[in-house]
Design a protein that fits this description.
The complex is a heterotetramer, with 2 copies of chain A (about 230 residues) and 2 copies of chain B (about 220 residues). In chain A, helix 5 packs parallel to helix 6. Helices cover about 20% and strands about 25% of the residues of chain A. In chain A, strands 1, 2, 3, 4, 8, 9, 10 and 11 form an 8-stranded mixed β-sheet that branches. In chain A, strands 5-7-6 form a 3-stranded antiparallel β-sheet. Chain A is α/β, with parallel strands linked by helices and about 230 residues long. With about 220 residues, chain B is an alpha/beta fold. Chain B has a single domain, classed as Glutaconate Coenzyme A-transferase (3-Layer(aba) Sandwich), CATH 3.40.1080.10. Chain B contains 5 helices and 13 strands. A 10-stranded mixed β-sheet of chain B has the order 4-3-2-1-5-8-10-11-12-13. A 3-stranded mixed β-sheet of chain B has the order 7-6-9, with no helix packed on it. In chain B, about 55% of the residues are buried. Classes of the chains: A alpha/beta (about 230), B alpha/beta (about 220). Chains in contact: A-B, A-C, A-D, B-D, C-D. At the B-D interface, strand 3, strand 4 and helix 3 of B face helix 5 of D.
């Protein structure tokens, strides 16, 4: 079950304007850099992007914002970049903010065939507006629905030809849930190995969730907040 | 004398109990990790996917793949574990984290908290704050008692869009430690040298003052 | 001549498409794995937590920690992966498995299936069958056309407690291949040497017979 | 954060009659053998046991059935043993059958603070009786509620002193979700290592879900269906 494609061009074949994309990562950590570069090249516009954050001005999803390729962002935390702010305040960019845990669970639900679930997060806030409220165990909860995407684009540390993925440290974050929720899931990996080279006990994302996999040419892995202590 | 940010963090650290898993928000809460009392072992969870968050790395040891929820480079302690965002919030929503410390712009006397949005200003988002406050059994808010203009942030009713309702039970400010119950702030402790009158004056919400309000002991 | 269990499995194997993930139920469905057509690569999922299920182990190589949903000792193929039960049913419920093959006690002409409970008899439980039939887009039922007493198992309405409603689209029996649509069984193929009349006689539900009903070709 | 206890006696301190227990395992694979032996010794009765299966006559949960310690079984598949059948038919034992995927998801929901979710499994069957039905995307779903337990008892391959767990092959099954859903979660492991000895990328169950861990004295690991091919 070989899922390997040669490059980002092949991996993103079929991505069209006005599609809904999920993109893994938390801040700039664990983002699919090579695929984002390819999305810029493709020049598709009107995208709805589901991603926890929206990158910075000159990296990550910020690159798609520069080209005005994004119509709507669905995130939990945004605005680490000026162009985002400008487009949002001018009304060019639509932004839907979702509590981070609900965002993660809604992606998982989309992949797991759970159309909706109840969570306490956001009850009594504007996030709950228009949503059903129901009490369980004496506590109010709101109904949240599954999220899906035309393409889910994730970044992993190691992957095999079957699409099995292993993530590194906190670069895992939203990648596994988004991998589950894409009609087509594309994985870019730092290291691509033959089937059988990964220990089946250690795989984070089973290959069944991944349709295309490729080895990224280059990973810049930019650090957003470099914090250190002195020796 | 009113506490500075480190003083607030230090006082909150006294609330830690041995064996607790703790989630620290961005800002003052992050400083709590610097004041863990002797003999107390706690483990820090960061909602982006690590349990067992250690101190910042030594220069040159930064790993772009290892950050906290504030996007800062960090290290992992012995026995740490990494996980995905859904599992991370399963820990939080499922009340496996014993203490959440976070900042706030406003807190009301019924325990509402507002810390994510100021109308008319650029909205950055709630991140994990709404999940944290809606789920945690034990939330301590770390904040300044008033804003820079001297206006109270401990209110009868929050004026800003809410992050969560009726969820805050304890507030530690630069002036005082307060408990929230029965739709009132209850004054528990004063910052060193701060008078009850100063605290009452700085609190817009209903505040109950017992006969004896001890001064905080930060020497412990 | 009516097919035996292996014949049914062999015919079902012809439905496999390259690149499919497949869940095979206990009984006849398990045999399908023995007849994968040349040039077709499929991967077997077992709902207890493995993708890439291989053949039975050689004697002496059995591992108690490696079984299938039928609790049989198995092996893992190259590129296999293990996961927990929640993830396993996320694959199933989320329609990531392209084909589910399972047995049935009864199937009705509207696609209902009953395969888990006989009133008055010891009930063993539905296991994963209800999740599988409610979720799968593509279900093939492998069954004998009639019970031992010669009574049809392809009915107008199921008489036994249901496992799922309106979910079966294809049935392969010892006598025929049938499609279910528009609240009718549609006869597609006959088992070698079996006549249309025999099939119609053995089918209680409404059955549509086209002018030409080809014989199955099991020589492919 | 040392979670190590010396033995099953200490690990199951506090287990009382009439409690609800979750027990990991699929068939006899990945069951907490040492803890089950201790439950027999404790002689607690009136237990509600949530476990995918109910063991065989002389192994696994069958041992608790022999002593009539179980009042109610919540499972997806049972009756691989005669004593179970006898007690069920005589009305001594109450049995609630749940679709396997719903059972797994309800345990996870219990641990994850999701009080309820919608699933298509069981719609139109007796499993749906008394449950809310709602249509999503044109397909009917039923509302299923979270499961919780006073004690969740799981079996892992390796564990460290912090309670971090790694499972082996298909012995993982229900163990990770049940570990999340216990007020107190007890893990018995084949190999107990110091904190830091396990790779933090490879841990299946984070220690936050585990309150007590011990090294099992003996694992029989009985095989239920020994199937082999000839060389």
């Amino acid at each position: 079950m070989n899922k390997v494609v040669a490059n980002p061009e092949e991996a993103l074949k079929g991505v069209e304007s006005n599609m809904t994309l999920m993109l893994g990562g938390f801040g700039l950590c664990g983002i699919p850099e090579n695929s984002i570069t390819q999305l810029v090249k493709l020049g598709v516009t009107g995208l709805t992007c589901i991603s926890n954050n929206a990158g910075v001005d000159d990296f990550g999803l910020g690159l798609l914002l520069q080209g005005k390729q994004i119509k709507k962002m669905i995130s939990s935390y945004v605005g680490e970049n000026d162009e985002f702010e400008r487009q949002m305040l001018s009304g060019e960019l639509d932004v839907e903010l979702i509590p981070q845990g609900s965002l993660a669970e809604r992606c998982r639900a989309g992949g797991a065939g759970i159309p909706a679930f109840y969570t306490p997060a956001g009850y009594g806030t504007e996030v709950a507006e228009g949503k059903e409220v129901r009490e369980f165990n004496g506590k109010p909860h709101i109904l949240e629905k599954a999220l899906h995407a035309d393409f889910a684009i994730v970044k992993a540390w190691k992957g095999d030809t079957e699409g099995n993925l292993i993530f590194k440290a906190t670069a895992r974050n939203f990648n596994p849930m988004m991998a589950m929720a894409g009609k087509i899931t594309v994985a870019e990996v730092e290291e691509l190995v033959p089937a059988g080279a990964l220990d089946p006990n250690e795989i984070h994302t089973p290959g069944i969730f991944v349709q295309r996999i490729f080895k990224g040419l280059k990973f810049e892995k930019r650090i957003e907040q470099r914090t250190v202590r002195q020796k | 004398m009113a506490l500075d940010k480190n003083g607030i963090a230090q006082r909150i650290a006294q609330e830690l109990q041995d064996g607790w898993y703790v989630n620290l928000g961005i800002g003052i809460p992050t400083l709590v990790a610097n004041y863990i009392p002797d003999g107390i072992e706690v483990e820090f969870q960061s909602e982006n996917g690590i349990l067992g968050m250690g101190p910042f790395p030594f220069e040159g040891d930064e790993d772009a793949d290892l950050i906290n929820a504030g996007k800062q480079t960090i290290t992992a302690t012995k026995g740490a574990v990494y996980f995905d965002s859904a599992t991370s919030f399963a820990m939080i929503r499922g009340q496996h984290v014993q203490l959440t410390v976070l900042g706030a712009m406003e807190v009301s006397q019924n325990g509402d908290i507002a810390n994510w949005k100021i109308p008319g200003k650029m909205v950055k988002g709630m991140g994990g704050a709404m999940d944290l406050v809606a789920s945690a059994e034990n939330i301590i808010v770390a904040m300044m008692h008033t804003n820079k203009a001297g206006i109270s942030k401990l209110l009868k009713t929050c004026t800003l869009p809410l992050t969560g309702v009726g969820c805050v039970k304890k507030v530690v400010t630069n002036l005082a430690v307060l408990e929230i119950k029965g739709n009132q702030f209850h004054l528990l402790e004063r910052a060193p040298g701060v008078t009850v009158e100063e605290i009452v004056a700085a609190t817009e919400g209903t505040i109950i003052v017992p006969d004896n309000v001890p001064e905080m002991n930060l020497e412990i």
